[in-house]
Amino acid sequence: MLRDELKKNLSTIPADQPEIRDHVETILAETTSPTLPDKARHYAAAVVRWCAAGCPVRSVELQAACRLTCQGCPSDQFDPRKEVCKVCGCSVKKSRFAIRDKVAMATEVCHKGHWPK
Ligand code: SF4
Question: Ligand 1: does its nearest atom lie under 6 Å from the Cβ of 87?
Answer without folding.
Answer: yes
